Amino acid sequence: MRQPKTAQVVIGAQFGDEGKGKITDYYAAVVGTDGVVARFNGGAQAGHTVVTPDGLRHVFSHVGSGAFAGAATFLSRFFVSNPILFLKEWEVLATQGIRPLVYVDPHSPVTTPYEMMINQISERERGTDRHGSCGIGFGETLERNLTPVYALTVGALDDAGALAVKLDAIRRVYAPARLARLGFGEAFARNAGLFLSDAILEHFVADTRCFLARTTVADIQTATHSRRLLFEGAQGLLLDQDRGFFPHVTRSNTGLRNVLALAGDLGLERLEVTYVTRAYLTRHGAGPLPHELPEKPYPGVIDATNVPNAYQGALRFAWLDLDLLSHAIAEDLADAKRWPEVSVNARLAITCLDQLGDEPATYYRDGLRRAASIESFAAAASAGMADVLLGIGADRNSIQVSG
After folding, report:
1. Which residues contact 146 (CB under 8 A, 6 or more apart)?
2. Relative to the CA of 197, which of 1, 138, 345, 402 has its CA 20 to 30 Å away?
């Protein structure tokens, strides 16, 4: 009997920072060099931490979190490429002996230095009303690409002369107009030295040359041919641009919508989806955080990845709300009903359980605060899903299957 064409999918079920990198690495280790991790949303603002069983650690941004396991990476048309930050990550991985195979869709939007400037300037100008952006120009790139004359994709990077002309138009015409629309028109003049720097423009053109040299431009059919496919999401369901707490959202569909579109391109028949959450709730950046706490929920909580930064501040903590979790997952799974040719099987992964120490798992259900053993907590959180992955340590070998 012919086996259905299947792919694994890893999706964050909260505000991001759930442990998607660890779960992606867990699945990638099964297929190794036969696998390819497809990034189906987001961009360089991702920070997916992977620790190997022998202690190698990296926070993945562009490159898929299966790279330590030998899997290739595919940056889809829904992924925003940032050549500057890609090269920084490439250099870090090279020091660890990793030179990943990276494919990138020619329709992937490209971030320039000018969206990064606009993003950072506008967040500073908002003061206490910040949206919680990472400051790397992700949403601004998508905004600029809505105007065809200023749109820039990976497929257009090969002509350095034409690229320089477009960049000049972006910095001289688009950037001041965009800042004015945002209500910060005077900020362009205050930062004109950066926007009009020829050195920055020329350096970026050189960066695009290096970016193209280290990647292979290809469509999804070519990049995934004869490989086991694993989709890796960025951010989380509660940051989805259509379902999150606007305006404190990411400009992206963080759940199944993009995956289903790509599955249609490939003729996939089944998706094995893993929704990931920590044992508690976190948020990095401004915006609502139900049941927020003034400090860490458990004394054993350690997070070396989400350090404070100028645009998002420090990591925030809360008790996990299982009603919010189940609602977010149910809404996302509802999207699959519009694609009846693709069957979807869902499971839950709960990470950071080792950080609870000897304390019971504390969570909210039906508006009430509760405490339970890890086993009872996992059963309550899974809400009828077949089984649960329990992350009780830093690396893939610490993951257990319950249920």
Report:
1. none
2. 138
Query: At 40, is the secondary structure helix, strand, or coil?
Result: coil
**Tokens linked to 32:** 């190794």
Cβ atoms within 10 Å of 347's Cβ, excluding its own:
17
Side-chain-facing half-sphere of 260: CA atoms under 13 Å = 18
* Whole-number Cα distances in Å, 298 to 236, 281, 302, 319, 358: 22, 12, 9, 10, 10
Please give the Cα distance from 152 to 137 (Å, whole number): 14
The pair of three-digit structure tokens given for residue 88, joined into one six-digit string: 């920084």
Q: Do residues 175 and 189 touch, judged by C-beta distance below 8 A?
A: no
Looking at residue 231, its amino acid is F
Rounded to two decimals, what is the model's pTM?
0.94
- Structure tokens that stand for 386 in this block: 């077949």
Residue with the two structure tokens 């800042």: 179
Phi, psi of 277 (to 5 degrees): -140, 150
What tokens appear for 246 in the block? Answer: 């606007």
State how far the Cα of 150 lies from the Cα of 143, in Å rounded to an integer: 10
What is the Cα gyration radius of the chain?
Answer: 21
Please list the active-site residues. Answer: 17, 48
Q: Rounded to an integer, what distance in angstroms lies between the CA atom of residue 31 and that of residue 264?
A: 23
Model confidence at 38: pLDDT above 80: yes
